[in-house]
Amino acid sequence: MENLQKIANNMRINIVKMVHANKSGHPGGALSCADILTALYFNAMDINKDNLKDTVRDKFVLSKGHASAAIYAVLAEKGFIPFEELKTFRAINSNLQGHPNMLDCPGVDVSSGSLGQGLSVGVGMSLANKLEGNDFRTYVLCGDGELQEGQIWEAAMAAAHFNLDNLVLIIDYNGLQIDGYNRDVMNIRPVGDKFKAFGWQTVAVDGHDIESIIAGLNYAKTVKGQPTVIIAETVKGKGVSFMEDKAGWHGKAPSDEELAIALKELGGNN
Amino acid sequence: MAKIATRDAYGKALAALALENKNVVAVDADLSGSTKTAELKKVAPERHFNVGIAESNLIGVSAGLACNGKIPYCSTFAIFATGRAYDQVRNTVAYGKLNVKICATHAGLTVGEDGATHQALEDIALMRAVPNMIVIQPCDGIEVEQCIRAVADYHGPVYVRLGRSAVEVVNDNPDYKFEIGKGVVLHKGDKDIVMIASGMMVQESLKAIELLKEKGINPTLINIHTIKPLDEELIVKYAKDAKYVVSLEEHNIYGGLGGAVAECLAKHCPRKQVFIGTQDTFGESGKPELLLEKYGLSASKVAERIINECK
Q1: pLDDT in tens, B118-136
Q2: Distances (CA, A) of A77 to A49, A69, B64
Q3: Mutate which of A58, A114, A120 to test chain B, going by most B C-beta atoms within 10 A?
Q4: Where do the domains of chain B lie, and which CATH numbers do they carry?
Q5: Quick check: B41 contacting A, CB < 8 Å?
Q6: Which residue of A68, A139, A170, B288 could cross-link B112, Cys pair, CB 3.0 to 4.6 Å?
Q7: pLDDT for B269-295, tens place per residue?
């Protein structure tokens, strides 16, 4: 577990460095899902260099595509892309596009960026796995504000209708979106009851306790006949004091001084 | 001549293809009886997915199936596939160059009585503007049958535009071979007027030529089933000897076949072009043949414009 925490912390160091490197990106929502991605890529998912290019395997859909720095950081931790490449994030000619493109970056299982679309893709992947009768699982990560998109509920209805117990949705529930708190912009509560009403199994976890996230993911593997949503309570900007729970750090790059403070807090080197 | 709607030919071709290729699946949004994907359901029910009245999800689910190696043929009316779900088509399907075949039916005015909300007249323009997208509009049952097989062999997103109303079979010759991106010369007439048509306007054009012949005018007719990529070589080959090029489509004159032909001519061989299509207007309810007459797409109206404008 200690090792996983180290990986998540290293991801956070790389996330702030990436956003700083070309003065562009979305640190808040990337930092909030670093522990979730660690639990997925280093525990729940069977994904490695040998099966990376397989058409069918455990898959991950980053529906909140603006948290691209987080997926690039975890792909680097897995050794799928070189750490050196992270510096090119959002720069011209980079494989690491502002929002992930599956054609450019190995390990990105589908392109994303326009919110609300990833759960539908997850439903399609899961239907294909059911059709083949394999045991592969599909994981989709959505932001909480993203639940305001109507398509999420079209897909939620379909996932339950098709009994997709091989599909897991994880909600990075940090409570914030660009214009402020969800509850002020457009209330999404009660999230669990909504999914229950749509026919989903629901689990609440501490989104910054990797053990808790893994327990949720393991529980989801035991659910039969219906999809599972893991509601992960998180803090936007987690790990960097001045970014924590601040909507202003949704899509803003740190200055040189701010980077130095952030790296000091995370124990990283520039 | 035998008549069959291109959507009916689609259903039959899809069912036949599904029996041969286990990766072929159909995804529909509560219109399987109209789009004819129900034909696949008859032979392979486990490979037919109905997502209900949810077109954004229709495209997203199809994208996911394609990610995992399936060849989804997803169908709804053209207006919904390209309008409501445009963002899903652009950002998820086309950007990732996913192997999704969007086979949209009920395109154009010949939807008839349902009226303007259901008559897609800008779908070609929308799909043509999306990178990675192939745009095909087969004109008859034979072309549909071969097209549905050909797009399965091509890896990447394809938009296939199909119609509701029955149309005459015009490609019933044993040598006919559909090839993505290759136009078909259907009538070799005089060189000075070249008609370039797509979809059901091919049949109207053939009828118009019969009317024109009575007046001593005998244009050449090219069927362009693939609007993107456009068969520029064939178009230029015929346009260079012509005085007039006439584009004919059941679509707005902006952004569709007429636009594509004009871009080609402007680049390679500028010619005076007559744009036959809807003139930047919505449609309305009515019987298909009466709508074609009112909006200037019937054989008689086409002949009239050619007589008046190609002097």
Answers
A1: 999 999 999 999 999 999 9
A2: 12, 12, 26
A3: A120
A4: 3-168 (3.40.50.970), 184-309 (3.40.50.920)
A5: no
A6: B288
A7: 999 999 999 999 999 999 999 999 999
